User: Fold this.
Amino acid sequence: MGKYIAKRLLASLAVMAIVSFMAFAALELIPGNAALIAAGTEGSSSSVASIAAELGLDRGFLDRVLLYYKGILSFDFGVSSYFGESVSTLIGQRLGVTFSLAFLSVMLAFFFSVILGSAAVLGRGKFLDAFSRSVVQIFSSIPSFWLSLLFLILFSSVLHIVNVGDYVPPSVSIRGYLSSIILPVAVLAIGETGPLLRLVRTSMIRARNEDWYRIGKVRGISRMRLVMAYALRYALPGPLTLAGSELAKLLGGTAIVESVFALPGLGRLFLTAVEMRDIPLVEGIVIFVSFLVVLMNLVTDLILFVSNPSMRKAGGIRL
Assistant:
């Protein structure tokens, strides 16, 4: 167990080192001057030089690299050239919105995938099975931006059920929070349900072909109990791993939905930072989201390792 964790940690650190350097190099190659943008059109040459010195743009490449990694190790990503606030503060203010949006979306998608997948296996070859496969095809092909606009028009403009753009933190009002986040959660959950449902159905069909399933039928155990109590437990590690991967993906992939529904999350903040060429903020968000993705993948692997006896006997996944 300790050896496996050590190997995964080393692999995660290597990924973080590569991603952080790629982010730094890519932003270095982008044309333009962040100091000029931060100073504005009426900024004097002295103010531009002062901002450039504050951002470290007047130093050599090696000095900027060392300063960059020093900030990462101390969790100090500098000051946003556009907002004028600490990058860490800006990320912290918006992290809760993006994380709750991603987490609730994956949980909702996982719940419906397990329900529909189990029902499809119980009625294999019948209506529920055909319905679940149709859901997979439809949900996997709908673009999130199109579905966001459709939900926005239907539930806000036509039915007037929710007010888009009035985000309410859960600390202020739980009801207001749910009202402001239910539509984007539904949009993201629909997009994630397709792959999860396909995997749940495939894993449970594979479980039904195992010897223990046939032995259970011979012993007179009902099909409902075999599927819900045994096949589902046997089939869950795969969907749980995929759910963890989808959560990690959504932590850095909610920008479009957040923009459509005017949510103050990391994705929308990142689009603003790119538009204004706010290099410290872009670098900070890229590194922080990359860290979250690597952390989620590590946690998912460890959960799978602990819950799967065959992996423990084999010493875990080979890196």
Q: What stands out?
A: Residues 87-122 form the longest helix (36 residues).
